[in-house]
Design brief:
single chain; mainly beta; four-stranded antiparallel beta sheet; globular
Length: 121
């Protein structure tokens, strides 16, 4: 089992940047592919980005491709989401998730509590 804690959310103006972090407990972090999802008010939770265990494979939603970058540090047991050129439509609660296989689907085994990102226009 792994526990995930997100941080780094906040309020930013459109065009700005934020870096989200997700710290994982336990010594098995490298066993998991990691993903970021987001949920805006009144909407379903959507895929944002994912990274394989060795970081050799990354997936992005079309809406964030070229603006967001997912990365991981398997020594620090942390996955990051660098978000640049933020838009008001990026406003959502962002969730970190862990799973045994990389996926774009909302089928991850473990989830963090979420961190709020608000982009003002």
């Amino acid at each position: 089992q792994v526990q995930l804690v997100e941080s780094g959310g906040g309020l930013v103006q459109a065009g700005g940047s934020l870096r989200l972090s997700c710290a994982a407990s336990g010594r098995t972090f490298i066993s998991y592919a990691m993903g970021w999802f987001r949920q805006a008010p009144g909407k379903e939770r959507d895929f944002v980005a994912a990274i394989s265990r060795s970081a050799s494979i990354t997936y992005y939603a079309d809406s964030v491709k070229g603006r967001f970058t997912i990365s991981r540090d398997n020594v620090k047991n942390t996955v990051y989401l660098q978000m640049n050129s933020l838009k008001p439509e990026d406003t959502a609660v962002y969730y970190c998730a862990a799973n045994w296989a990389i996926s774009r689907r909302d089928e991850y085994a473990y989830w963090g509590q979420g961190t709020q990102v608000t982009v003002s226009s």
